[in-house]
Specification:
By secondary structure, this protein is an alpha/beta fold. The protein has seven helices and five strands; from the N terminus they run H-H-H-H-H-E-E-E-E-H-H-E. The protein folds into two domains: about 5-70, no CATH class; about 95-230, Ribonuclease Inhibitor (Leucine-rich repeat, LRR (right-handed beta-alpha superhelix)), CATH 3.80.10.10. Helices cover about 30% and strands about 10% of the residues. It starts with 11 loop residues before the first helix and ends in a 9-residue tail after the last strand.
């Protein structure tokens, strides 16, 4: 069940099932901790925030599982490439190659040196976690009406810019962006763009996110109309 939730949080239902399963098997807290440690290790995630295993583990055999899961990445990449094609994102902005994708440092939708016009994204795919080295992300699209939790998977992201923001809330998972140095947000204005389209006014910013920004000294640049949400 843990492996089935790759790159997703465990919801209450799954957590309850895990607790019931652990109780049925009579597992101790230490044994459960060891299972979680192994799961995190196999998934290729950082174990820095976890305590040391209660038993002396030989992790070498479990590298086979890590390699097995890694080979699923091409399938995830294919889904990401389909999304990029559907949104008209040129390969010069988002390479259609897994190795190049993992080395990508910045992504924006404002075109490239060949003069592409702004591509208005309608969604952010879950597979965005494949951009594991990305440091700068700029999205300018009023068609994007939701910022999904998966954006928190970009652990090396330093600069996040959301222009023409047309959402009602921001996800608390933005607090997982431990490398973040600056966040810029400009809200969408149909009058500014001479468009007759619906507007979703940003009305909710999680307190965890506000505290995260303050405690980490993250530079904040937002439209005057939403400044109070970050106080």
């Amino acid at each position: 069940m843990i492996f089935a939730r790759i790159n997703k949080p465990l919801d209450k239902q799954v957590t309850s099932l895990l607790e019931m399963f652990a109780s049925y098997l009579g597992l101790t807290d230490g044994e459960i901790g060891d299972i979680v440690y192994l799961a995190v290790f196999i998934l290729g995630l950082s174990v820095d925030s976890l305590g040391e295993p209660s038993s002396d583990m030989d992790l070498a055999p479990y590298k086979v599982w890590s390699e097995f899961l890694y080979h699923y990445r091409p399938n995830a990449a294919k889904r990401l490439f389909v999304w990029a094609d559907e949104n008209g994102i040129p390969s010069s902005n988002l390479p259609r190659n897994l190795n190049a994708l993992s080395r990508l440092k910045k992504l924006n939708n404002d075109g490239d040196e060949r003069g592409y016009s702004v591509v208005l994204w309608s969604s952010i795919p879950e597979e965005i976690y494949l951009l594991e080295s990305i440091e700068l992300l700029t999205i300018d699209s009023h068609r994007l009406t939701d910022i999904p939790p998966c954006i928190g998977k970009l652990k090396n992201l330093k600069y996040l810019t959301l222009l023409s923001l047309n959402v009602t809330s921001l996800p608390k998972e933005l607090t997982e962006l431990r490398s973040l140095q600056k966040i810029k947000i400009e809200v969408f204005s149909p009058k500014l763009y001479h468009l007759m389209e619906p507007v979703n006014k940003l009305t909710f910013v999680p307190r965890e996110l506000v505290q995260f920004i303050k405690l980490n000294g993250i530079e904040l640049d937002v439209s005057p109309s939403i400044e109070l949400l970050f106080k």
